[in-house]
Write a structure and sequence with these properties.
The chain is an alpha/beta fold. It has 9 helices and 6 strands, in the order ααβααβαβααββααβ. The strands form 2 sheets. A 3-stranded parallel β-sheet has the order 1-2-3, with no helix packed on it. A 3-stranded mixed β-sheet has the order 4-5-6. Helix 4 runs parallel beside helix 5.
């Protein structure tokens, strides 16, 4: 219950704080904070390779980031975390405690700075299923959606549907149809900028390079 007080979930493919009717017009420059891979549990699991990994190190780093963001003046319009919010995959024993600690951490984010979550492979699974995607949505909200801030259009996508759609063909196709609609809207010329958030980058340096390796 406490989670719902501070955490606004994306639903119906939109974000409650940032609707087009209220935020569709350009109001001048603003800024936001973008981060990724808070991934509670990564260090002791992948780097230190401990048999029973904890995530105190990630908690400390995330706390420091939140404190720095809260101290900014003027405040950023939002803080977006672009995937791998936690390390534990859906259906594993550490999933729930890592989720709980993630939400406990972000209770400290100033209430005037909405948290926007983007899903990564650890959040929905390397090979997502209907169930794993629903697990994510139940906790964090929609896995793809559009929102608007000060005349800028922001599109959030589930990049895992492009990486490994085999078990979720219907969901991947639904997102693709939705994305075509959003891109048509983006081309309308109504918005000062259009920004896409996702976890897996299309490429790092060259558009024809090999696929990104995920950890």
């Amino acid at each position: 219950m406490a989670k719902e007080i501070f955490f606004r979930k994306a639903e119906n493919h939109s974000f409650p704080d940032f609707k087009k009717e209220n935020e569709g017009c350009w109001n001048g420059p603003f800024y936001f904070i973008q981060g990724a891979d808070t991934q509670l549990g990564l260090i002791e699991n992948y780097i230190e390779k401990k048999p029973n990994p904890g995530w105190e190190k990630e908690i400390k780093l995330t706390k420091a980031a939140i404190e720095a963001i809260n101290a900014m003046t003027p405040r950023p319009h939002f803080f977006v975390v672009c995937g791998d919010l936690i390390d534990a995959f859906p259906g594993t024993s550490l999933r729930k405690p890592q989720e709980e600690d993630f939400f406990q951490l972000f209770k400290e984010l100033h209430p005037d700075i909405p948290l926007v979550c983007v899903c990564g492979n650890h959040d929905v699974g390397n090979n997502p299923t209907q169930k794993s995607v629903q697990v994510y949505k139940d906790s964090f909200g929609d896995d793809y959606f559009t929102f608007y801030v000060g005349g800028v259009m922001f599109i959030v996508i589930n990049s895992q549907f492009f990486k490994a759609p085999e078990q979720v063909q219907d969901l991947a196709e639904e997102q693709e149809r939705w994305l075509e609609e959003q891109l048509a809207e983006a081309k309308s010329g109504r918005y000062k900028h259009v920004v896409v958030f996702q976890h897996i980058p299309w490429f790092i340096r060259k558009s024809d390079e090999k696929r990104v390796i995920l950890i």
